[in-house]
């Protein structure tokens, strides 16, 4: 996603020069396995990020929201591991009633949502079975 990197002012009375940076967003998963006998040591880096529109950023640029875990685990061949911890809580405004009704005939409320992402890994040794 292209985002504003920096703004330089080359001189008085000149137009500012903006630079654009590209940032990854979405679900980013990095797994680094190490075989240790019949076990596998696995370095796990997981990131979930997205851009939100804000009015407080420079030149109304979007703000990057990021949740990440970085851990190392050891599992035996064929085991399943579940990792959690990427939790997001969101407050949202909820409008009820037909949109063509006046405001005094509609109801407004707030809802609190909690979202947790679980990563399920099934560890398998592939290749030489004489380990």
TrEMBL record:
Pfam families: Secretin. The lineage of its organism: unclassified sequences, metagenomes, ecological metagenomes. GO terms for cellular component: type II protein secretion system complex. GO terms for biological process: protein secretion. This is Type II secretion system protein D. It comes from mine drainage metagenome. InterPro entries: Bact_Secretion_Sys_Channel, T2SS/T3SS_dom. Residues 12-101 form the Type II/III secretion system secretin-like domain.
